[in-house]
């Protein structure tokens, strides 16, 4: 029984890591209706920038600030070079643009910062605490706290601030938002910058666990089923989706894997997401689109 | 004004480029006196950290050989083709270089991916082009009678299984102590990873240990469930057959569940500096099999340091990779290639070899201990003798351990129980021949 609980707890904690990546997608989707495929590349860029600065002897806080600066510059450039020329184009066009953007970011990150594997140590022990037999580490607890804080901060940003309300207005109806004086480029720069900071946090936590290397950009593949299950436009949905994906893929690996003589976690989350698409196409917390017919 | 100047600069660059483009292309036979080495690299993508030092080792060795006149006077022309470790790009590269390049002939293709090695089998047979996979490739291709154009030289994963089990037995005090031990193999769920399921079942049957097979889905960034399972089942030893990010995640997750790192023995592709450094202190004590021992104290390494690295002629942008496991893997591949070409020269004369001559040369390759010493590769390269019947040689490997900064070699060259697997491997080859309806190969007599 304890084994089963440990498997579920481990899965839930992994799910929080997935959710951190998924939140970056949600932010941009909420503000612009764009599915930003480049979020994984942003995770790689942010972690690689941070660890490179850190390896040059800069203190943690300074690396963090400089990396945030780099991500803000990237957000401004993306808005100016990619999004602005495509304003009022279909979401499919914008999605394809972010797909291309992901290749550009990955390529530039490797070209400038190299392809080496880096160790990233945030100084948080990742060994089991053995709380009542549970295999939970300080790092797991830290990840959980960071995720909860992040959701709280973003909920405040979206719900209580002027910028947040503007973001929601743009997402709801871009033309109407522009007609009441909301400046689209400004909003996009803000939201891509915030998504960049979320990518940095995700990159640091993932990097601490697996090292900073190209495969960080592949965590994007884990975020997709999380988004489908939780809903593309809901930050709490990303968390709940992450928890569901993390726990079920762990259980599937243990109990279904032996039946098919292989690992199933790479595709099981997608099976689950497909089931959700059939039953609840907007996910658990996604907004139901209302259209005039 | 500044904008105008920029435009002028751009115009100048374009003009220079157009002049460059107007120069007639190199004549088709410009490289007729050189031997082509197509290098299917991956300097981009998730596996670039494993690739870049290897290409450094290969290029630096050929650079050194060419600076001394080439292999018996024949210079090696390296043409690199980026694959990003994808099959489709590797196939494109194959099509581009299988007939040579601007007059330079290709005698053998040294491939750089186990997946591609398996996938190219039929094409290579049709093109009659020898394909060499150093310490990788399909097991049954050892049988030269069925696979005349494939050479899985130096090492194979079946023998590796045997070496690992023998090593564990030695730690326990003898092969009889294996009985009842729980040995788990945590493997990358791919053709490469699944390759040891069969030999480990044979070994478990022979020695009485409990063989537990645990797959991990690619790329392996989450392994908590698998390591919880290992802990719950009371596993004594783990044989880790990982690739890329799966290795550091495995080592760190093992530490999280409290599994001792010195009871994990990694595969040859889980035993580089790039595999252990991201895992930090969790990797201290971790062991791995190696056929490419790290270090720069080998005689050939010292020569390269003096003639290539120190004068700034290395392909490595980061020369701290010199002497790393992957750099030495490239170095070993380049030495084997050079020796094969040298073998061919002894029969056909000192000129670029054709694919047919390359095949003959590989099948008569004999790098004796004396020759290894003469090459300055003692300790780096194990002796290698191939034949038309045996396309692998006598596989051997060492066990190394990570001390937090360096790999420390714990053993000499270890040989596995190859005879134990002989029948199974050759039966697989025979089954393949039957399935593909391949005619028996005419015996090579000279």
TrEMBL record, chain A:
Membrane topology: Multi-pass membrane protein
InterPro entries, alphabetized: ABC_transp_permease (IPR001851), BCAA_transport_permease (IPR052157)
Keyword field: Amino-acid transport, Cell membrane, Membrane, Transmembrane, Transmembrane helix, Transport
CDD domains associated with the record: TM_PBP1_LivH_like (cd06582)
Entry keyword annotation includes Lipoprotein: no
Localization: Cell membrane
One GO term of the biological process aspect: amino acid transport
Gene Ontology cellular-component terms listed: plasma membrane
Pfam families: BPD_transp_2
GO molecular function annotations of the record: transmembrane transporter activity
Keyword Transport belongs to the record: yes
Membrane-spanning residues: 6-27, 34-53, 59-82, 94-113, 141-159, 186-206, 226-247, 259-279
Family (UniProt): Belongs to the binding-protein-dependent transport system permease family. LivHM subfamily.
Full protein name: Branched-chain amino acid ABC transporter permease
The species this protein was found in: Acidisoma cellulosilyticum
TrEMBL record, chain B:
Keywords for this protein: Signal
Residues of the signal peptide: 1-28
SUPFAM superfamilies in the cross-refs: Periplasmic binding protein-like I (SSF53822)
Organism per entry: Acidisoma cellulosilyticum
Pfam families cross-referenced by the UniProt entry: Peripla_BP_6
Key word Zinc present: no
Similarity section: Belongs to the leucine-binding protein family.
Highest taxon above the source species: Bacteria
Name of the protein in question: ABC transporter substrate-binding protein
CDD domains (UniProt xref): PBP1_ABC_ligand_binding-like
Domain annotation Leucine-binding protein: ranges: 40-306
